[in-house]
Amino acid sequence: MQFQWYPGHMTKAKRAMQEDLKLIDVIIELVDARIPFSSKNPDIDQMANGKSRIILMNKYDLADDLRTKQWMDYYGQKGYFVTKVNSKKGTGVRAVQDIIQKACKEKIERDRKRGILNRPIRAMIVGIPNVGKSTFINSFAKKACTKTGNKPGVTKGKQWIRLNKNVELLDTPGILWPKFEDQAVGLRLAYIGSIKDELFNIYELSILLLDYLQENYPEAVSSYYEIENAADSAGRLELIAARRGCIKAGGDYDVDKAAKCLVDDFRAGKLGAISLETP
Q1: Fewest beta carbons within 10 Å, which of 57, 113, 184, 222?
Q2: What is the reported pTM?
Q3: Which ranges of the chain does DSSP label H, i.e. alpha helix?
């Protein structure tokens, strides 16, 4: 499968972000803890231009704890300030305020020496579609100040949000980058729902996901669906179809319906804490 999705509004959003970077002190990038590399937009690195950088490993409750720690160490060694959050439940969100202060320590000190006191830190929050930016902002601000949704592309335009007397946050639309050099990156983005489902074959996607799970988390599928471990992924998908009652009118297994069921269950974390890549 070939993965590519770059709607016109993303080009416009990227240009606007480049302009807005002049106004901000720190970039906060949300990544999905299940794919901390594939969900990190390389274009942000090119635009950052020496700004302080924070990475928030969102949805860490859905990811493998050991892999998450490896990724936090990996990005920490590269000079990022890194922490993990569960925006939906609010876990780890309170600590972000302290990390912003640490990331901007030099800037705050420079302001102090120039006699500028108590100027709010201006942070830009960025992330790919469906990574959970809006949910994080609402949790961080303790009020619904952005629209949230479980599909890519909900945030269409930028908005400034005054979180408290110390921090002003610039929200931005989720953007991907124009070309995936490695199609495995596109595949992982499809797994977590950052590319619209209509743009790829759900059956093929589910077979590849089953292949990965069999190699890395061999008990995940059989344990959750309470099925035997079939010889191949196509067989496992048929067993899932049988277990879930995905049967067509003529009695054949509805493997496309079973495929969607599998992908949805993975995204919801029902198969367990699973990571899709290692540093």
Answers
A1: 113
A2: 0.85
A3: 8-20, 42-48, 65-77, 95-103, 105-113, 133-141, 183-192, 202-216, 220-225, 233-244, 255-267
